Amino acid sequence: QVQVVESGGGLVQAGESLRLSCTASGLRFDDYTMAWFRQAPGKEREGVSCMSGSEVHTYYTPSVEGRFTISRDSAKKTLYLQMNSLKAEDAAMYFCAAGPLYGGDCNSPRDFTYWGQGTQVTVSS
Fold it and tell me: N or C: which end of the chain has fewer CB within 10 A?
């Protein structure tokens, strides 16, 4: 059974940093594009960042580019999202997802097969 589990969420002040982790088991980690999505109350789920299984291709939504860094560790089957200079608008439930293809972006949640339960990120001003 495939399991995707996020951790690392919490409450931070605006301008501070947080690192999210996502462990994936039961799948061939290096064959999957891994992505971070987020969803705030009343809003659509949006793709934040993703990285192809080869680690050659990386995408960031414009609102986080320059502040967030995605990385992955094949040995640990773990995906990370380093979030720096957090803003109030970054507050959301963050979800980790795995998909079989890399399409050049993380625009559609429907492209991803396996999902974690989410980890809450709260940013206070």
Answer: N
pLDDT above 90 for 79:
yes
Residue 3 has pLDDT above 90, yes or no: yes
CA distance 22 to 78: 5
SS3 90: helix
Evaluate whether 69 touches 17 at the Cβ level (below 8 Å).
Answer: no
- The count of residues in the chain is 125
Instruction: Name the pLDDT band for 104 (thresholds 50, 70, 90).
Output: confident
Nearest-angstrom CA–CA distance, 83 and 8: 11
Residue 106 has pLDDT above 90, yes or no: no
Distance (Å, whole) CA 53 – CA 36: 14
Name the 3-class secondary structure at 34: strand
